Each structure stands twice: as C-alpha cells, then as structure tokens.
Amino acid sequence: xxxxxxxxxxxxxxxxxxxxxxxxxxxxxxxxxxxxxxxxxxxxxxxxxxxxxxxxxxxxxxxxxxxxxxxxxxxxxxxxxxxxxxxxxxxxxxxxxxxxxxxxxxxxxxxxxxxxxxxxxxxxxxxxxxxxxxxxxxxxxxxxxxxxxxxxxxxxxxxxxxxxxxxxxxxxxxxxxxxxxxxxxxxxxxxxxxxxxxxxxxxxxxxxxxxxxxxxxxxxxxxxxxxxxxxxxxxxxxxxxxxxxxxxxxxxxxxxxxxxxxxxxxxxxxxxxxxxxxxxxxxxxxxxxxxxxxxxxxxxxxxxxxxxxxxxxxxxxxxxxxxxxxxxxxxxxxxxxxxxxxxxxxxxxxxxxxxxxxxxxxxxxxxxxxx
Length: 371
Description:
Elements: H1 2-11, H2 20-37, H3 43-56, H4 69-78, H5 82-93, H6 97-101, H7 105-111, H8 114-125, H9 130-137, H10 144-154, H11 159-171, H12 173-184, H13 187-190, H14 202-219, H15 224-238, H16 243-267, H17 271-274, H18 277-307, H19 326-338, H20 345-370
Helix pairs in contact: 2-3, 3-16, 4-16, 5-10, 5-15, 5-16, 7-18, 7-20, 8-9, 8-18, 9-10, 10-11, 10-20, 11-18, 12-18, 12-19, 14-15, 15-16, 19-20
C-alpha cells in the first residue's frame, strides 16, 4: 500500500511528467530573463512574461485551468481590460505638443503603418486564416498592448507568439532600426537640422485630445477602447485639475496592470501551443512588418522633403512605428552621430505618438473588417 502511495506521488509529480517541450520553454524564458536583467531590454514586460511562461509550463500545476491562479489573471486579457488600462497610463505620460506643433508628423505616423497591411497580405499568401493574418500583421505597429488587444479577439491561440514577438521587437528597436536608417539615408540627410518647435498651449492639447477621441471613435468604433483610454489619460494630464488621477494612471495603475499583462502573456505560451512552425512564421513575419514600417516612415519623410519648404530630417520618419519613446530616442541618437549639434528628439516624438494613434486605429480597422 505504501509503495502504491509513493508511486502515485511520483507519477503525479511535475518532474515525472516533464517533457523536452517544457524544457525548451524554460530555456526561452531564461533568454527573456537574460535580456530583461542583463541587457535591460523592456525589463518591465519581458521579466513578467518570462515568469508567466515558466509558471504556465510547470507540468501538473493546473495554474491555467479553471480555478487556477493564471486562469483568473488571464481574464483581464480575455475580457479586453488590460490593454486599454495600459493606454490610459500611456496617455497620462504622453505630450502631444510635438505632434500638434508639427501636424505633418501625423503623415509619418500613418505611413509607418504600411508594414501592418503589407504583412497582412503576405500572411494570407502563406495560408494563414484572415484572423491569424490580421493578428500577425499588427506586430508591425511595434505596440504590445495593441497587438494583445487585437489578437485576444481574433486569434487567442496565437496570443503568446504575437505578444512575445511584438515586445521583443519593441525591445530591439535600438538594434534593428539603425542599420535600416543608415542604409536608406545619406550622410547629408542625417545631418539636416530642424527648427525648434513652437510652444503649444494647454487649450490646444485639450482640444486635440477631445477631437481625436470623438472623431476617431465615430469613424472607427472598434478602436474606441484604445483611443478613448489613451485620450482620457491625456486629458487627465493636461487638464491641470486632476493631477492625482493622472499620477495614479501613469504610475501605480500602469505598473499593476503591466505585471498582470506580462504574466498573462507568458501564461499563453504553453509548449504545445507555442512550439509550432506557425510560431516561427509569426516571429519572421513580425520582423518583416516592423522593418517595412520603419522603411515606410523613412521613405515618406524623404518624399516630404521634395515638397516641403522647411527640410525634414528623414530619421524622424522611423519613429512612426509607435515604440514610445524608444524609437524617438533612436532617431535622436543616429542624428546626433551624424551631427552633434542635431537635436531630433522632440521632432521625432511627433511621429512617435502619431504612431501610437495610428496603430490603435489600424487595429480598429482590422477588427472591423475581420472580427
């Protein structure tokens, strides 16, 4: 009898049921932990994702089954709660002044979304279903919450692969973008100095937030949760009378939601779902989408120079991919290397925040057409 009890305890243990697939997932989680801690690539997200990945792949734990801890934490993604709350915090941190001061930046943010729709076509040619293709293509926006928001509605089974690809490319912006920027621009173009932006009043910022919120949702209702939350956070920031709420949104709230969101993403990377050829194709297509988005922004900025009286440094076009504020910082860094007197950060923030609006709008369009 005692031998039977011991044997039962052994056969029901996680170690006994551990397979090579779970071990591979632990290795992948280890890589993410290394990137987060040692390289400091998006640590606030990659570290919770890695922990969620480990927890979800521990055999026999039942954490993702109904009644398990991860099951309930994931409900925030399943119900579409976490991404809009992240956007609320982003809105409370974002200054739309550079975009308002230079409205042409909107075109750069829009052009960078071309990578999304180009990859949508490519994914369909590779026999992805339309919902799967839409979920994969949104990686090109380099906006993790938007990718999670769309994928959780169209292809929940792909959430782990799509989210990890999206956040990985966001983290690798300083590595992926500079070679493309230098390849597509000349030394002379990278040295272009841009004039200081005018100061934007609080009234202008508030009017902009209200207009984008109302008009954006009227035209694309499916983007309402993201656009509404983004602009709500910004209105709290710019109103001047709700600083406590803005402070909570951009600090305590976004930090709490980031923990839950990261763990939820990791929880959707169970080995049997993640270790497929489709996952590799998603990661590859995501890289293509991100690269095309960067290239589109750069080329459109070069095109604007043909018709603009005041010269535009093409480097700011690459910031339209939405990875805020890292993409804008990369534009500043590459521009500074070409001309130490160049200060492109605020100019790049225009297309950067336009990219946030653009990726949310693109997600709404895809959700409307495919959902």
